[in-house]
């Protein structure tokens, strides 16, 4: 149960950070946060949210870096 509490806390922090980056011009950080949030959701079993956030992270990365990027 402690693990689930930590996941919930982390999810809240990622969500707060995403809200801050929504008004920022640092799209790379927003892409990274979306990816981390998706990974957290995957590990905690929330696969529907994980898929949604992985897709948002991918869309963000393509919009920021283009489809072909060395990273």
Describe this structure in words.
The protein has 3 helices and no strands. The model has no long low-confidence stretch (mean pLDDT 87). The protein has helices at residues 2-22, 27-44, 47-65. Helices cover 82% and strands 0% of the residues. It has 71 residues and is mostly helical. The N and C termini lie far apart (36 Å).
How much of the polypeptide forms β-strand, as a percent range? under 5%
Taking all Cα atoms into account, the compactness measure Rg is: 13 Å
List low-pLDDT spans. none
From the structure provided, what is the oligomeric state, counting identical versus distinct chains? Answer: single chain
Number of helices: 3
* Cα-to-Cα separation, first versus last residue: 36 Å
- What structural class should be given to the helix and strand makeup? mainly alpha
Largest sheet composition: none
> What is the number of E strands?
0
**Mean of all residue-level pLDDT scores:** 87
Shape: globular
Helical content (DSSP H or I, runs of 4+): over 70%
Helix-strand pattern, N to C?
HHH
